[in-house]
Amino acid sequence: MGGETVLIAFDSTQQALRAEMLLEYEDIEIDTRPTPKEITAGCALSIEFPLSDYLRAKAIMMEQQVVIRGYFRQFFGQYCEVDESGEQKEREE
């Protein structure tokens, strides 16, 4: 999968597998992969998909009430949580 991508991290494998099924059903190109070490999550599986599908995927997760840990993108080699527009979330101090 080339270009800009978004990664969904989960706290349970059950939710990750459910999300995988829902996104595949909606014909969103996904890649199920190990959760990067710098993302603290209870599940070792994450789903990566194109940034262009972010709002659609997020709407599906909300509509189907899939419990997620967060949405992440790589910025300068580091995964950071993203906001509603897919941009890096401001850190809360």
Give an overview of the whole structure.
By secondary structure, the chain is α+β, with helices and mostly antiparallel strands. 25% of the residues lie in helices and 27% in strands. Strands 2-3-1-4-5 form a 5-stranded antiparallel β-sheet, covered by helices on one side. Strand 4 (70-75) and strand 5 form a beta hairpin.
| Order of helical and strand elements | EHEEHEE
Q: What's the rounded overall pLDDT mean?
A: 89
> Strand order within the widest sheet?
2-3-1-4-5
Which descriptor suits the 3D outline? globular
**What ranges have pLDDT less than 50 throughout 5 or more consecutive residues?**
none
Largest sheet: 5 strands, antiparallel
How much helix, percentage-wise, in residues?
10-25%
Rg computed from alpha carbons, rounded to a whole number of angstroms: 12 Å
How many helices in DSSP terms? 2
How would you classify the quaternary structure?
Answer: single chain
Helix-strand category = alpha+beta
N/C terminus separation: 34 Å
Number of strands: 5
What portion of residues belong to β-strands?
Answer: 25-35%
